[in-house]
Amino acid sequence: MRTHGRSPKGLYNTWSSMKDRCSNPLHIRWARYGGRGITVCPDWHPFVKFRAWALSNGWKSGLEIDRINNDGDYTPENCRFVSKVVNNQNRSDTKLTAAIAAEIKKAASAAGANCHAIGREYGVSKTLVRLIRDGKCWREEKVEAEQ
Description:
This protein has seven helices and two strands; from the N terminus they run H-H-E-E-H-H-H-H-H. The protein is mainly alpha-helical.
């Protein structure tokens, strides 16, 4: 059944999932969204209005909707489309900030650095320390943009 016209399937799924997380207490992620009072702005309840906003605000296949302020609602002023990596870095339960990631990278890049000890110091795994050091997460462009 097509209820969304000529819209890309991924965009419709983004909209549907966003609404479900915020309005369905049976949704697996309800506690992190609707259960915390996060809502979807009324203007986005009809898909066609959300679609118009998304297409004029950078949506492309493969990008995810991200709330800039994790305690804020899904509104045009608080949302953007980003890669999965950036979206994961902006989660409310992310322990790191860009500044801390930069410190970890600097420490881990030093000669003789012990990734296990650095991880203990910052409360992250040695694997994450290596990923930051190797530029596989918390890349420098993200770090520099936040400083």
